[in-house]
Write a structure and sequence with these properties.
six-stranded mixed β-sheet; 10 strands; binds adenosine-5'-diphosphate; 9 helices; single chain; alpha/beta
Length: 260
């Protein structure tokens, strides 16, 4: 079975015919993708191509104009047909997003940031949420930071907290939107290492990134987006070493040889 087959039986989530405009600007022009259980889907493409909007649509933060999102456990949201809010919220609950700029609450400690979702949204007791948060912080080497505020963290630490906050929600699917692009270069590795570990553990992930070496190593499938469409998709070794489409070639060349 091809990794791009939308009817793949192991697809955790499928997206069909996703369209989104902001005013006159048609940003997504029919996106189809399948996120397979335990796999890592990497989304690459130039700025403005619609990558963030795809993630936000999967997460229910953005309401598409048209398109169908289905999950294996029977949720089917058809945005052309005024879907019930509760279905959109259910989908949102299945996913958790890691943002480029971390989006931690500045007035809350690290621990408070992490337990906010589980306690306030999911109804987990504070004791249990705290125990789980502490265990997750230990995993990413930040146990001693539980009571500090976000401004006291380096970017790399803040993003690892961002990842822990997503994990604490126990989502089926982790969405990463350029998680390392706001970081100083020497801090990127720590965050990528955590992401690699999660992939190895079998988390299902959709990752928007310009870290091509990471993508090459961790992705099961790579989608190249440009101008609101998926121009090319395939296994990382094919996309990165033998892209077929001219636009993919140009994009990769620009990233790999920016001075040409
Ligand atoms: P990418 O993540 O690939 O850089 P985005 O999905 O952020 O692309 O944006 C795609 C296009 O949609 C851009 O032209 C952007 O300006 C526009 N856009 C994104 N979000 C909004 C919004 N909330 N309102 C208006 N335009 C938006
Ligand atoms: Mg973006």
């Amino acid at each position: 079975m091809s990794p791009t087959d939308r009817t793949a039986p192991d697809a955790l989530l499928t997206v069909t015919g996703l369209h989104k405009s902001f005013g006159d600007n048609e940003v997504l022009k029919g996106i189809d993708l399948a996120v397979r259980r335990g796999k890592v889907l990497v989304l690459i493409g130039p700025s403005g191509s619609g990558k963030t909007t795809v993630l936000r649509s999967i997460n229910g933060l953005e309401i598409p104009d048209a398109g169908i999102v289905t999950s294996t456990d029977g949720i089917r949201v058809d945005y052309s047909a005024k879907p019930p809010k509760k279905d959109i919220l259910t989908l949102r609950d299945r996913t958790a997003m890691v943002f480029q700029h971390y989006n931690l609450f500045p007035h809350m400690t690290v621990l408070e940031n992490i337990i906010e979702g589980p306690v306030q949204v999911q109804g987990v007791s504070k004791t249990v949420a705290t125990e789980e948060a502490v265990a997750l912080l230990e995993r990413v080497g930040l146990a001693e930071k539980r009571d500090v505020y976000p401004f006291q963290l380096s970017g790399g630490q803040a993003q690892r907290v961002g990842i822990v906050r997503a994990l604490a929600l126990k989502p089926q699917l982790l969405l990463f939107d350029e998680p390392t692009s706001a970081l100083d270069p020497e801090l990127v590795g720590d965050v990528l290492a955590v992401m690699k570990e999660l992939a190895d553990e079998g988390w299902t992930m959709v990752v928007v990134t310009h870290e091509l070496a990471f993508a090459r190593q961790v992705a099961d499938e790579v989608l190249f987006m440009d101008g609101g469409v998926i121009v090319e998709r395939g296994a990382p070794k094919d996309i990165f070493t033998a892209p077929k489409q001219e636009r993919t070639k140009q994009f990769l060349h620009r990233i790999l040889s920016p001075l040409d």
